Amino acid sequence: MPHRMPRIMTGKILRNEKRGVFYRTEVSVPERVPFMPGQFAMVSGWNGNDPLLPRPLGIFRSEGDLTAGIIEFVYKVVGRGTALLSGLRQDDLLSITLPLGNGFSLDDAGRIWWLVGGGVGLSTVFPAATYLAGEDFHMFLGARSHDQHPPREWIPGWDTPERITLCTDDGMLGYNGTVGAAIRERLEVLSSSDKERLTILACGPKGMLKDLAETALPLGIPMQASLENHMACGFGVCWGCATEIRASGGAEYLRVCKEGPVFNAGEVLW
Amino acid sequence: MVTTAETPDLSVRVGALTLKNPVIAASGTFGYGLEFFPFYDISRLGALVVKGISVEPTRGNPPRRIVETPAGMLNAIGLQNIGLRRFKDSIVPALEKSKAVYVVNVYGRTEEEYEVVARGLSELSSLAAIEVNASCPNVKEGGIAFGSTPEGLFNLTRRVRAISEKPLWVKLSPNVTDIGVMAKAAEDAGADAITLINTLRGMAVDPRSRRPLLANVTGGLSGPAIRPVALRMVWEACKAVKIPVIGIGGIQSAEDAMEFILVGAAAVQVGTANLRNPNACVDIINGISGFMEREGIMNLDEYRGTLLL
Ligand SMILES: Cc1cc2nc3c(=O)[nH]c(=O)nc-3n(C[C@H](O)[C@H](O)[C@H](O)COP(=O)(O)OP(=O)(O)OC[C@H]3O[C@@H](n4cnc5c(N)ncnc54)[C@H](O)[C@@H]3O)c2cc1C
Ligand SMILES: Cc1cc2nc3c(=O)[nH]c(=O)nc-3n(C[C@H](O)[C@H](O)[C@H](O)COP(=O)(O)O)c2cc1C
Ligand code: FES
User: Is A239 close to B276, i.e. CB distance below 8 A?
Assistant: First the structure.
């Protein structure tokens, strides 16, 4: 079930900050929006018909009370919509529909959580780490090159670096290789009793998610994966975002925006 | 409807049906209607048209199903739906409770399948009308064969007409040479109203990977990009038939809606606008009221079809 019913809000930009390859946008909204990490918003910050559709962005942070709230998004510029968002300034307005979809299930006590973020997937993995602050978690962050990692102070739990593994494909920072490889190494030294308590949560490129699923699932390790798909509405009416999910007697197309974006990795047809 | 001198009357007649305003949510862009409960009371709409329903559940096309295009979008959903039985069991009770005026869009792979769905729906006393989708471009067998020739359209319409007493709307494809001839064929076969346009067939490719963007290769174009084409076709259809014409295509605002009424549409449907703004239909209803007040239009009958040529 969605954490709360979605609603449409007008947001006002408080801050639009660029750090490395990431933008971090802080927006004031009329009230606090409770959310589960993994839930997302449909966002547009432009008038007129072109671009036509709002863009899906994970909810990075949400605070406030009944009379005032703050929402944050973290994103990379990849095309026209995100470029327009990145150009917005203080007091510019955004139209935001949120919270949407189903986030991670994090309320299972006594688990060991491995949180895996590839690239901008950190935008959903960081709030999960914040949510799990008092729990036993370890975070793996993957990037193509060292300059594609987020600034240290954005990383929840950076003050306890033993909980963080940075993985870099170019080997110039942290673990030299993919998050999948780092996880396979760490699994080898994990006791079997700890393995039984382990849950993997992941958000990132499809190739990364598939690699992790192929590692975790045969070992019986539950994995929740947050998927991305092209969307039009984001709230379940157009069926444009469908992805193939195992069902009794085969597979069916479910909506990433409604039944997802977080799915049990064992049910996804990768 | 009683109106005071200051408040314009938004009600419209579509054949035997009277709608409280001319704004109808278009099929495929409004889900089963229930998805809009968080946003507004759907009984505020003139009517809503439910997603295309088939005899059996339909799986739909593989992804990718959506591509944004300049001021528009392509979709190739492939009419994914839960099928007639589940629709009646699990959706209709909630629609009835909502008090919304609902219409069901129907499609089949054969004329017989259209008949089966139409028969099953006709039992629903709460159903306002049946809309025959004779025009979906995204399913191999679906609709298009019936919608692309006047004879095919005439036969399909006549068969559904014979099965159902419900008001029958026939939704036309724009992917034809002469829309007037198609509209006339539906009218001659007994349709109560014509709705148009469905999406225009389109395509998007990636020049680098050399691949189509949609798994289905082609898809249906909708949104503001198609509005001028839709407006022209609605105008032509209005001239060709006496039955009401419901205008669809790219409507995003009250002024867009008024354009269609100006060229003769009895009412309008709003599609893609719902996807970008869940409140689009109510915003348009409020906007029409404001437009009428500002322009001194007391009811839509006095404005409809008054294009100055
Ligand atoms: C549930 C969900 C959560 C997301 N959260 C974040 C986030 O927190 N931070 C972030 O940087 N990105 C996130 N993304 C990806 C983000 O939506 C895309 O990067 C963005 O839509 C690109 O828009 P554009 O106009 O810049 O790119 P263009 O390529 O110009 O966009 C063209 C069209 O394709 C769509 N599109 C392009 N890339 C993607 C993609 N990867 N996923 C879905 N649709 C895409 C756009 O929405 C648009 O409709 C998320 C995607 C989903 C589905
Ligand atoms: C995602 C999507 C799904 C649609 N599904 C249907 C459908 O099931 N049956 C139908 O008759 N039309 C369907 N349509 C067409 C719309 O009802 C409408 O005719 C068309 O999109 C043009 O209007 P617009 O520009 O306002 O969207 C669909 C359109 C979209 C965008
Ligand atoms: S994006 Fe429309 S149903 Fe998911």
Answer: no
